[in-house]
Design goal:
The chain is built from 4 helices and 11 strands. Strand 10 and strand 11 form a beta hairpin. Helices cover 16% and strands 26% of the residues.
Length: 215
């Protein structure tokens, strides 16, 4: 998908969300690019950092930094982006860039730290959550990777479009409809694979499926 065909997502501070690409010119030089306005790209050579230290021969203030991204404008006629690398002279021929790999959206640390808080925990991942609500939950006693509690299973089933009530899940566990479900204290731990199996084979009116123990 071309950058111009993507939605212009924004962060809470209204800045645009950046999408990165691997690009290559007609000579085989590889670069890293991100989406700009109007379907254009900003790109720098892959062997260079996006921000480089100025060298003494550049007659710039001591400690000056250089942005190595340059603008590449999209051409409908060529179906490519046309421009020059940062280390080319202004009278050098224009080059053509094409996208060879889409690296996806880039999340700045200030939002990643907030969005991913708690995701190093073993608990349920809230897949449908928005920024500030994504993350894991600390596991309950005895919980292993790939398992969730009844409350977490309720959220999971709602997010995949097959909502099941807590009572319904407990009954399904007790009747053996959820493979791998096990009793922990007064409640249950359910494997996600078992939940998916149950959702694909839920009891329907007039049909009483055999429990896993009966198979």
């Amino acid at each position: 998908m071309k950058p111009s065909e993507l939605p212009n997502y924004r962060w809470p501070d209204l800045s645009y969300i950046v999408r990165q690409y691997v690009v290559v010119d007609a000579r085989g030089r590889i670069g890293i690019a991100h989406n700009g306005s109007d379907g254009n790209l900003w790109a720098h050579p892959a062997e260079m950092p996006a921000i480089a230290q100025a060298t003494p021969d550049m007659a710039l203030p001591n400690g000056a930094k250089l942005m190595t991204d340059t603008l590449w404008r999209y051409s409908d006629d060529d179906d490519a982006w046309i421009g020059r690398w940062c280390d080319q002279d202004s009278d050098d021929e224009l080059l053509h860039l094409v996208i060879v790999d889409d690296l996806g959206w880039v999340m700045p640390d200030r939002y990643a730290d907030q969005a991913l808080s708690g995701s190093d925990q073993m608990g349920f991942w809230n897949y449908g959550a928005t920024i500030g609500r994504v993350g894991g939950r600390p596991p309950v006693a005895g919980q292993t990777p790939g398992e969730c509690t009844i409350d977490q299973a309720v959220e999971y089933t709602a997010e995949v479009g097959e909502p099941v009530s807590p009572r319904g899940l407990r009954l399904a566990c007790a009747r053996g409809y959820i493979p791998g479900a096990r009793k922990i204290g007064r409640d249950w731990l359910l494997p996600y694979e078992g939940i998916n199996y149950y959702l694909d084979n839920r009891p329907r009116p007039g049909r009483k499926p055999a429990s896993r123990q009966e198979r």
